[in-house]
Structure formats: structure tokens, C-alpha cells
Amino acid sequence: MSKQTKYQARLPDNQGFIQYPDNEHEIWQALYDRQKGNLPHYACDAYLKGLEDLAMPTDRIPQLGEIDAVLQQATGWKTAAVPALISFEKFFQLLANQEFPVATFIRSKEEFDYLQEPDIFHEIFGHCPLLTNPSFARFSHQYGKLGLAASKEERVFLARLYWFTVEFGLIRQANDELKIYGGGILSSPGETLYAMSDTPVVKPFDLIDILRTPYRIDIMQPIYYAIDSIDYLDEIVKMDIMGAVTKARQLGLHAPMFEPKSKAS
């Protein structure tokens, strides 16, 4: 996470207000408008309910205080403004304290469809609606506590659990329809359509399997894992996650389903 980023987070003033230029509000509006058409078809019910509860503005970047007011009442969570990239230690500390890190910058038009760094649209639009859901909130809290206590080597495996659930998770709802709950997909117009196409592999949730699955952050995902409902996140919390990490380390990683990243990239 020490990698350099071309984006610079905007700092709040003494009242906690962040001033964004008009062109950045326009990018938020364009991203929101584009996903607004996709969401009723592809987002899971729990996300759609959370989006309705947050009632975030469509024509401007919301202030974090507006989001906090809803989250605090729903699940006791709040946001925390952070730079573009933070350490694993800081990330786990925030989650363990029921604070969700939000990088206070927005992507450029050139990276409209897919962005490697988590921007404010990714964090607020992609993740915060589900933080109004108790099961998702409990899972995120427990994940933070586990990560805080884990070793550097164990955290690498834990990162895969987060990646294939909170970031790129899918749900098979009661009618067996495949829907999205992962914020990495929901905040990406390009990946939303890709994830719902016939191109990627979709497998049922398996903790050991997930912990052994490599991923790359700079490509569309070749594989996704689907849970049966948002409430299943409570079942994952009850699992011996760290015991599974130990077993996954012993078994080793699966062969990657993607080409290795070239040294030039």
C-alpha cells in the first residue's frame, strides 16, 4: 500500500466541509446517472434499500457528515476521511472501530469505467449503502478486528476474503437470480455489466477456496464467489476464519486465472 497514487485527497475545513470544484461534482453526477440505470437490474435488495435510506445527492459529491447521520442511526458506523492509500494497519484499525475509510478524491474522466485506487464514488456509492445493513456491518467490524490481530503474512490471505466479498461479492437471491453486493463492482459501470455477463466464472462461497484464490486489482475479475443472502455474512463471522487462513497457507494458492502482470505495466 506504499504505492504512489496520482490522486490527491481533498482536506476538510475547520467545520469538516470539503470543497470540491464543479467539474468533480459533474463526474459524480455522470457516474451516478450511469449506474442508476444498472442498479435496479443488477444490485442486491439490501444494497438498493441502503441506497434509498442514504438518499445521497445525485448532482454533487456528498459531505461525509450527511452519510454519517444515516449510518450512525442504522448500525453505529461512520466514515473516516483518508488519503488515497492507507496502510493495512490503519485500514483494520478503522474497521475495528466501526469507521469506514473514504478517500476524499474522485476519479478522472479518463478512468470513468474502472479505477485501481478507491475513490469517493467507490467508497460512498459502492460500500456505504450496505453499511446500513446489520449483517454487512457486523461482518466488516469482525473483519477489522481479525485483521488488526493478524500477522503480516495472515493479512495477505485475509485480503482475499475482503476482495471476494465486500469488494467483488455476488449474491444468489431467493429466486436464484444473481445480484451484486460488492462495492468494487457496484461503483464501476464497466465491471457491473461484465460481472453480470457470461464471461466470468461464478462459484459458490467456500472460505478455504477464496483464501487460496489469487487476484489482480488492475483487471476485470475472471472469477467471483456468490453467497446465498446478505444474512450469510453472519454465518461467515461465526466460522473459524483464522483457522481457515492457517489451512490455506498450508495448502498453497490455486493457479491464477489471469495472465501475469508484465514488468513494464
Automatic annotation (TrEMBL):
This is Phenylalanine-4-hydroxylase. Pathway: Amino-acid degradation; L-phenylalanine degradation; acetoacetate and fumarate from L-phenylalanine: step 1/6. It comes from Shewanella insulae. One of its GO terms (molecular function) is phenylalanine 4-monooxygenase activity. The lineage of its organism: Bacteria, Pseudomonadati, Pseudomonadota, Gammaproteobacteria, Alteromonadales. Its cofactor is Fe(2+). Fe cation binds at H122, H127, E167. Its EC number is 1.14.16.1. Pfam families: Biopterin_H. Belongs to the biopterin-dependent aromatic amino acid hydroxylase family. It catalyses: (6R)-L-erythro-5,6,7,8-tetrahydrobiopterin + L-phenylalanine + O2 = (4aS,6R)-4a-hydroxy-L-erythro-5,6,7,8-tetrahydrobiopterin + L-tyrosine. One of its GO terms (biological process) is L-phenylalanine catabolic process. Residues 1-265 form the Biopterin-dependent aromatic amino acid hydroxylase family profile domain. PROSITE patterns: BH4_AAA_HYDROXYL_1 (PS00367), BH4_AAA_HYDROXYL_2 (PS51410). InterPro entries: ArAA_hydroxylase (IPR001273), ArAA_hydroxylase_Fe/CU_BS (IPR018301), ArAA_hydroxylase_sf (IPR036951), Aro-AA_hydroxylase_C_sf (IPR036329), Aromatic-AA_hydroxylase_C (IPR019774), Phe-4-hydroxylase_mono (IPR005960). Keywords: Iron, Metal-binding, Monooxygenase, Oxidoreductase, Phenylalanine catabolism.
